Amino acid sequence: MNNKINLAASFAAMPDEQGFFGEYGGQFVPAEMQAIMNDIDAAYKEICQSPEFQSELASLFSDYIGRPSPLFHAQRLSRQLGGAQIYLKREDLNHTGAHKINHCLGEALLAKYMGKTKVIAETGAGQHGVAMATACALVGLPCEIHMGQVDIEKEQPNVVKMKILGCKLVAVTQGTATLKDAVDSAFESYLQDPQNYFYAIGSVVGPHPFPKMVRDFQAVIGKEVKQQCLAKLGQLPDYLVACVGGGCNAIGLFTDFLADASVQCIGVEPAGKGLDTDQHSATLTKGQPGILHGMKCYLLQDEQGQPLPVHSIASGLDYPGVGPQHSYLKDLGRVQYQSVTDQQCLDAFMTLSRVEGIIPALESSHALAWAMAEAAKLSPEQIMVVNVSGRGDKDADYVANYLQL
Question: Residues 108, 146: one domain?
């Protein structure tokens, strides 16, 4: 009990009023942008106190997204591995096919409340882009999505959905033409008229208040898991496992459990072609503190502090930075960060598809790969919850071509 009280006190005030999680986070932007970020923070605090907003969001979570998402016991997979019981949090069953819709609805409602005239966003794998285009269609706001050309070619199903939903899709060809460059491009577009545009950041990254806001909207995942575990199993899980790129699905799963010392939280990063190569995106494993996209966080960077090119088979994870709260939780030791390779990810993708009939996103398959390897080492009495953050429809053609199926 003392442990729980101490941990609860440690995590209760994250972030502080300046948006810092320990030394990470903040607002590393020009003064005029700080004023705009502070306006967003003030509007967010105001809207959170509104019963009308809370009621509308709860109704949309239930009737539009389809929450609560199921907690599924992967019995065949658990038997095959012969260790811990694996439960899957089925965020892939949400409307639009991933967890991203949770915060996109919140951000779109906030943008409408603030009287903004357009929403601008970036996307990697396309799940945030689809979710944001969906949310903007629902609330009646124009939407502009920036996406790297490499990812456009890789994630065609999501590209088509975004166009059908009515967003303006901007192809980004600069740099490596992937997620980091899409963020840069979207921010440049936002700066053309920040008074009237709303930049809907796609993860728990960027300047304050975005890491806090996105976390708060995504925290519904962990709240549901806690309720579902207590109702189904009469106990809390022993392990929570989620993939980490920017980190919003993971922080959504972990937040409600941070004060529960008995629950081990595991974030799984992309080791790509190996941690001993330069072809990975294992920011928390191999990075150092630095500044990126208006925040201080762990960063894969060169000697001049510039972001390094990164790689992951999962487009949604190829980001050189990470959410500042994850950086803080790493330093505290409250969350353990591991990594798996592209090949391990693909193996997990195929295993879950063929053993349980669930095709997961390549992003989620990183978490599954770690869970499958570790579950076999544990006892059958132990419970492991893996966040299946998205479905693999978007990746099916790519994987089939890659594996020559």
Answer: yes
The per-residue pLDDT for 194 is 92
Where among 184, 214, 244 does a domain terminate?
Answer: 214
Angle at 390 between CA 387 and CA 393, to 5 degrees: 145
Overall number of domains in the chain = 2
Compute the distance between CA of residue 264 and CA of residue 236 in angstroms, rounded to an integer.
11
- pTM of the model as a whole: 0.95
List active site positions.
100, 122, 389
What is the CATH number for 228? 3.40.50.1100
Can you read off the two tokens belonging to residue 29?
């932007």
Q: Clarify whether residues 150 and 277 are in a common domain.
A: no
Taking the chain (405 residues) in runs of 10, the rounded mean pLDDT of each run is 39 85 96 94 94 94 98 98 98 97 97 96 92 98 96 91 97 92 92 94 96 96 98 98 98 97 98 98 98 97 96 94 98 97 98 98 98 97 98 94 91
pLDDT value of residue 125: 86
Bond from prior residue into 15 cis (ω within 30 degrees of 0): yes
- The three-point CA angle 339-343-348 to 5° equals 80
Q: Say if CB 399 and CB 255 are below 8 A apart.
A: no
What is the predicted pLDDT for the residue at 396? 94
Residue 85 shares a structural domain with residue 181: no
Residue 371 domain boundaries: 68-97+220-403
